[in-house]
Design a protein that fits this description.
688 residues, 76% helix, repeat, Leucine-rich Repeat Variant, Serine Threonine Protein Phosphatase 5, Tetratricopeptide repeat, 3 domains
Length: 688
């Protein structure tokens, strides 16, 4: 019965249907058994009659209990479904509002959240498909339309949007089939059907015409011309746009080495845009048709060929006013072919120092961070190309300076949106993008602006929360990058950081259980930087057992983990009595701290000495060290020549507190002739 009730409450439609069928069968069988029992009572055999009566009551009780459970479960499921329906509708409205504002990524996120509440809501699938069309994710749009049709096989909107997606992918026969389905479902949609079919026919005809013109250009008289002759032909505005697109592609294929690159330059190759109005108009068109797209792609391929490894050609191209003005527009065009080749052209510049300097000298890059960051939404190679360029550009100080202009108004809202939509975007690209933002924090102005952005912190925390539900390797990389970004931002100190300190430290405590050692190390790193901002955060992590966890990490961790871990302990023991007592209990005989005092890393030694000094006030702590070499170790550091004076200072304080708490250590101090060293180190000891 328990299994049956579990099946009836399942969200899996197949399991639910199976459970209902089983319930009906049981009820039918029980009714049949009751009829059989009533028939057996007619039998005069005394034994059978008593048996049937004896078995009847438990059966009735079992049936009554089952029906009661069934009724209760049905009410609970109806209540839960009603609540989810209300939430799904609210999320749908939020998605619609974002769609109307042109924020299609946010719209997709809201529709997805709605579908998590109601998997069978057809409107959410079609609305999300429409948003996917806007961001050119045609395959995903088709997938959502197919799901909408599973919810409602006569959904006209699903067939209409699926037809649009297939048309964009140049799947002409599939697009026609979708539009034919609309007419079959509703014959009154004949006008819509005709318009859609005409669009398909025109698009297919145009594509065939373009292919034919391209072949004619490449196989005809142009193919036999030299670079100089080709350029002469391309400068004259007396042919159609497809002719020039074909000729430019031929020219791109003809340029194979530096000699041909020089020929292109000396024969005024870069003046094609200025001399040929047809070429210029097609390249600069705001909303490009297919022929203009092909022309633009051809030009981009040509410029890649003539600029590869040629600094003079690179300079001439960037100083052309139309090129410098169009590059950011081409990146934002939404046309994948244009974006792909534009990114390839820019990468020729960004991958070397001279090229980057040309970019920052001749172009306004203030909006490029935002434009390139948008490619995190792409699922293809464009995302990786954009991140490569951004990673290169962050090496230039002038680029960082230009990024300050639009950081708060444009970049941070987009970045926080990407973080909150981590499940929907290209996660490999998001991880790289987050790392790039972390690198930009080397600029103090950028770091201050980011650290003061409340929404940025909220987005980081949301991504950390989601990592507990999503354990893919790509999501782990996002988490790793976000923790690195948080560490960099925590170099600042402000009221926003203080506000989030308890939440941030709580998330880090949870991450200490992660199987990925890199995540654990960075979580400890964030703890070491967030805890100084809030005494409440220190109190909470101490209650959560941070001391015991840090001791465990210090035993097994490498130098970086030890550096963060001992700093975290030093912060906790400085202000929290419970932390000091926990450390004495967890680190028996201070074996871990003594090991850290032998480290070659001065930061680790200084913090270990500080922790030891704080813990010596705990009763019995100093006595537990009587048979150790702690006096010799502390003397070595107190009288040493460490670069960081905090090492001598903390060692001297620890040595002084040790002798005060347990005078028997003074005998060891005298034996080692350490009184003179301790006396000379007293300048560091303000109070023992």
């Amino acid at each position: 019965l328990a299994n049956l009730v579990q099946g009836l409450s399942s969200t899996d439609s197949a399991a639910n249907a199976k459970a209902i069928a089983e319930a009906e069968k049981r009820l039918h069988d029980q009714e049949t058994n009751k009829e059989e029992e009533s028939k057996t009572t007619v039998n005069r055999t005394i034994i059978n009659t008593r048996a049937s009566v004896r078995n009847l009551f438990p059966l009735k009780a079992q049936l009554y209990g089952f029906l009661t459970m069934l009724e209760k479960d049905a009410k609970e499921r109806a209540k839960r479904r009603k609540r989810n329906e209300r939430l799904a509708n609210a999320l749908k409205e939020k998605g619609n509002d974002a769609f109307r504002k042109g924020d299609y990524v946010m719209a997709i996120q809201r529709y997805t959240e709605g579908l998590e509440k109601r998997r069978d809501k057809q409107e959410l699938y079609t609305n999300r498909a429409q948003a996917y069309l806007k961001v050119h994710e045609y395959e995903k749009a088709i997938g959502d339309c197919e799901w909408a049709l599973k919810c409602n096989e006569k959904c006209i909107k699903a067939y209409f949007l699926m037809g649009k997606a297939h048309l964009s992918l140049k799947h002409y026969s599939e697009a026609r089939q979708c539009y034919e389905k609309i007419l079959q479902i509703d014959p009154q949609k004949e006008s819509l059907f005709k318009d859609c079919m005409n669009e398909v026919n025109l698009e297919e005809k145009r594509m065939k015409d373009e292919e034919r013109a391209m072949k004619e250009a490449q196989s005809g008289k142009l193919a036999a011309l030299s670079i100089k002759e080709l350029l002469q032909k391309l400068h004259r505005p007396d042919q159609n746009i497809l002719y020039y697109a074909g000729g430019i592609r031929l020219l791109a294929g003809a340029v194979k080495d530096c000699t041909e690159q020089t020929l292109f330059r000396t024969n005024n190759g870069f003046s094609i845009l200025g001399d040929n109005e047809i070429v210029r108009r097609g390249f600069c068109a705001e909303s490009k048709n297919a022929a203009e797209v092909d022309l633009s792609v051809s030009l981009l391929l040509l410029w890649q060929a003539v600029c590869a490894g040629n600094e003079e050609n690179q300079r001439l191209l960037l100083t052309h006013p139309d090129v410098s003005a169009q590059l950011p527009k081409l990146l934002s065009s939404g046309v994948s072919e244009i974006q792909k080749e534009t990114l390839a052209l820019i990468y020729l510049y960004s991958k070397n120092e001279n090229g980057r300097r040309l970019l920052v000298r001749h172009l306004d890059l203030s909006k490029w961070l935002q434009v390139l960051m948008m490619f995190v939404n792409s699922t293809d190679a464009r995302a990786s190309s954009a991140m490569n360029i951004l990673s290169d550009l962050t090496q230039e100080e002038r680029f960082k300076t230009q990024c300050r202009v639009t950081l708060s108004t444009d970049v941070l809202p987009l970045f926080t949106q990407l973080l909150t939509s981590a499940k929907l975007v290209n996660q490999a690209a998001l991880a790289r993008c987050t790392g790039i933002m972390g690198n930009l924090c080397a600029d103090v102005v950028i770091r201050m602006q980011m650290a003061e952005c409340k929404e940025c912190w909220q987005a980081c925390l949301k991504l950390v929360d989601e990592c507990f539900d999503v354990s893919t390797s790509k999501y782990q990389e996002c988490l790793f990058a976000v923790l690195g970004l948080m560490m960099n931002l925590l170099l600042e100190s402000n009221v926003i950081i203080q506000y989030f300190a308890v939440d941030i430290s709580g998330r880090c405590m949870s991450l200490l259980r992660d199987k990925d050692g890199r995540i654990v190390t960075r979580a400890i790193g964030v703890l070491s930087r967030i805890l100084p901002a809030s005494s409440s955060a220190v109190e909470e992590v101490v209650k959560g057992g941070v001391v015991k966890k840090m001791i465990k990490c210090l035993k097994a961790g490498g130098q970086t983990t030890c550096n963060y871990g001992i700093k975290t302990l030093s912060i906790c023991t400085r202000s929290n009595r419970q932390a000091r007592e926990d450390l004495v209990k967890s680190d028996k005989g201070f074996s871990v701290l003594l090991k850290l005092l032998d480290s070659e890393n001065e930061m680790i030694v200084g913090n270990a000495a500080f922790c030891l000094a704080q813990c010596l006030v705990v009763p019995g702590a100093a006595t537990s060290l009587l048979n150790s070499n702690v006096v010799m170790i502390l003397l070595k550091h107190a009288g040493g020549d460490a670069t960081r004076t905090s090492v001598q200072e903390n060692a001297a304080i620890a040595l002084g507190k040790l002798c005060v708490a347990e005078p028997r250590h003074i005998f060891q101090l005298r034996k080692l002739n350490g009184l003179a060293i301790l006396n000379s180190s007293m300048k560091y000891v303000h109070s023992i």
